[in-house]
Amino acid sequence: NSRGTSYLLKDSVPITEFSASGPFEGHDLLRRGFTSVKNELLPSHPLELSEKNFQFNQDKTNFATLRNIQGLHAPLKLQMEFRAVKQVQRLPFLHSSNVALDTLRGNDECIGFEDILNDPSQSEVMGEPHMMMEYKLGLL
């Protein structure tokens, strides 16, 4: 009797109406994944976002100034040099100092926070060299 079954389905309520809403809504792990407190936190200080993007903003300002003074070719050439220097790295298990990038930016003679408190021997990046290299090459 197919008519009886269709009659039951016609009067059924969609499942979406059973979902909780409001302040007591449950978190659906299958659809939304695990919650992360880090993603829900707001910056603790108004200047935190500005400090996080300081180098990017400074480079953008320098490129705009260089473009106004020397033309379009100068910032493009400098950006190509930045990209080329960023691609040269040591092996993944060794700390890379990025001396060439600091020289291009003019930070090679400045002593900053990261120069003193960024000791590579205390770095958390150190690991099994063979496994890190295989991961980088896509063998794992």
UniProtKB/TrEMBL annotation:
The keyword Chaperone appears for this protein: yes
Any one Gene Ontology BP term: proteasome assembly
Keywords from the UniProt entry: Chaperone, Proteasome
A family per Pfam: UMP1
Keyword Chaperone in annotation: yes
Listed GO CC annotations: cytoplasm; nucleus; proteasome complex
InterPro entries membership: Ump1
Family indicated by similarity: Belongs to the POMP/UMP1 family.
Name the UniProt record assigns to this protein: Proteasome maturation protein
Gene: POMP
